[in-house]
Amino acid sequence: MIELKSEREIKIIRENGGIIALTLNYLKEKIKPGIKTIELDRWAGEFIKKKNALPAFKGYRGFPGNICISINEEVVHGIPGQRVLKEGEIVSVDVGVFKDGFYADGAWTFPVGEISEKAKSLLEVAKKALETGIAQARTGNRLSDISFAVQSLVEKNGFSVVRDLTGHGIGRQMHEDPPVPNFGVSGMGPVLKEGMILAIEPMVNAGTYKIKTLEDNWTVITEDGSLSAHFEHTIAITKNGGEILTLQGELSE
User: How far is CA 28 from CA 21, 40, 61, 99, in A?
Assistant: First the structure.
């Protein structure tokens, strides 16, 4: 069942989304060659707690980190650890926040120093796919209009969208109905209504859309070892279209 949120509830999620935006902007300045992913995780956890919120992923279904950090071929759910970031890598940072009974969720993929033209193109297309999907998140549209827009943009540029993982509704729970696939035909699924809250999150691969999970039972990688980028916003369906609740500030430039 899809739960519509009140203006008061959306306000809380927006405030939580703002913490995510601040956290990602803070980490953006920290991401450089020589930094260990566990350091980013610690900084993120401390930053979120200073905002009187909780890192939503910590302990979620047993996840050990405050945030997910996925590098290069890692698509999502990378566990922070002793890995050192290197020049030319790309790193996806996924942040969840819980406060006042509600969740928000957002992700961004950053370059580590100077990256290849292929990697730059991947990041640009994945970010554009998110923007294109959000543009379809308006009342009266169908859910799959978002999915179709994302897939079309990505595949037109020679990349692929992950099929086995989706975006999701969000609110009192981290994952609520409806699932939000990044592929599909338009005009299908539930009608989008004012008060729906969706986490839209294209996961875009440079090669095949196929993925697999490592033995840690968390880290998802591309099956062919190609690069992957992940961008995510929590958005509210309003009478004026999709409002981004995890506003990224300079990250959206």
Answer: 11, 10, 27, 23
- List, in sequence order, every residue forming a beta bridge with 76; answer none if it has no partner: 220
**SS3 labels along 13-79:** HHHHHHHHHHHHHHHHCCCCCCCEHHHHHHHHHHHHHHCCCEECCCCHHHCCCCCEEEECCEEECCC
Question: In the structure, what pLDDT confidence band is assigned to residue 248 with cuts at 50, 70 and 90?
Answer: low
Number of helices and strands (H, E) in the chain? Answer: 4, 15
pLDDT tens string 197-220: 999 999 999 999 999 999 999 999
Predicted TM-score (pTM) of the model is 0.96
Residue with tokens 């450089």: 32
Cα end-to-end distance, the chain, whole Å: 35
CA distance 105 to 232: 7
Q: pLDDT for 148-185, tens place per residue?
A: 999 999 999 999 999 999 999 999 999 999 999 999 99
Quick: pLDDT tens for 30-41: 999 999 999 999
Query: Please, what's the b/e burial string for 93-121 (b: 16 or more CB within 10 A of its CB; e: otherwise)?
Result: bbbbbbbeebbbbbbbbbbbeebeeebee
**Superfamily holding 7-252:** Creatinase/methionine aminopeptidase superfamily (3.90.230.10)
For 1, residues 6+ apart whose C-beta sits below 8 A from its C-beta are 177
Count of CB atoms situated within 10 Å of the CB of 179 = 15
- Token readout for 78 is 């990378």
